[in-house]
Design goal:
The structure holds two protein chains of two kinds.
Chain A (H helix, E strand, L loop, with lengths): L2 E5 L2 E5 L4 E8 L5 E7 L6 E6 L5 E4 L2 E5 L3 E6 L8 E8 L6 E2 L3 E6 L1
Parallel strand pairs in A: 2-11
Antiparallel strand pairs in A: 1-3, 3-8, 4-5, 4-9, 6-7, 7-8, 9-10, 9-11
Chain B lengths: L3 E4 L2 E4 L4 E8 L5 E7 L6 E7 L2 E5 L6 E7 L2 E7 L7 E8 L10 E2 L3 E5 L1
Classes of the chains: A mainly beta, B mainly beta.
């Protein structure tokens, strides 16, 4: 059975304090590792897809990386507007992605 | 209008009521999904439709009944719900169910409260 585990469950940062969110996965025949951002009262918003170990993608203050067992979402010099829940999902041979529980990020000014 | 649109955004209903949730996607996608999102839990897949044909039903109680009249519209019909069904119901679409290296695109959900 595919599994995706995210840590930490919650993270509080000061503005400008860089950190990383972790997504550990066991997904058979991984075809894509997805990161989403979800704001309160909204649906998940797609951020990145990673396809193979060693791949990296960046968008503004966010950088996602992938190894054979885990993915990291690095947040550099975060701002309060980066506060959200970040979801990770892996998709493999079963076609349907498996989601983690998410990491709730709060960035204080 | 672009993206995935869900209506209503909020719904309060009694346990004996019948209501429907609506989802519309303007992305030209062939697969549509219903998810349930509860606090502290991962997204729970409820139903998957590919080219208007249901291909996945994750043992969802019969009080939830999906309908997909065409590739752009998806409904979730609700009847005789229980308090534990209170949650955020999310609709998503993707290019094709078998193209699972492509991301899903989500609507903003319907917040459902059962009295």
């Amino acid at each position: 059975e595919d599994q995706v585990t995210q840590s930490p469950e919650a993270l509080r940062l000061q503005e400008g304090e860089s950190s990383s969110l972790n997504c550990s996965y066991t997904v058979s025949g991984l075809r894509g590792l997805f990161w989403y951002r979800q704001d309160p009262g909204k649906g998940p918003e797609f951020l990145f897809t990673l396809y193979s170990a060693g791949e990296e993608k960046e968008k503004e203050r966010l950088k996602a990386t992938l190894t054979k067992k885990e993915s990291f979402l690095h947040i550099t010099a975060p701002k309060p507007e980066d506060s959200a829940t970040y979801l990770c999902a892996g998709s493999g041979g079963s076609y349907i992605p498996t989601f983690g529980r998410g990491t709730s990020l709060i960035v204080h000014p | 209008e672009t993206g995935v649109t869900q209506t209503p955004r909020h719904l309060v209903m009694g346990m004996t009521n019948k209501k429907s949730l609506k989802c519309e996607q303007h992305l030209g996608h062939n697969a549509m999904y219903w998810y349930k999102q509860s606090a502290k839990k991962p997204l729970e897949l409820m139903f998957v439709y590919s080219l208007e044909e249901r291909v996945e039903n994750n043992s969802v109680p019969s009080r939830f009944s999906p309908e997909c009249p065409n590739s752009s519209h998806l409904f979730l019909h609700l009847h005789t719900l229980q308090p534990e069904d209170s949650a955020l119901y999310l609709c998503a679409s993707s290019q094709d169910m078998t193209a699972n290296d492509q991301p899903q695109h989500f609507g903003d959900g319907t917040r459902l409260s059962i009295l």
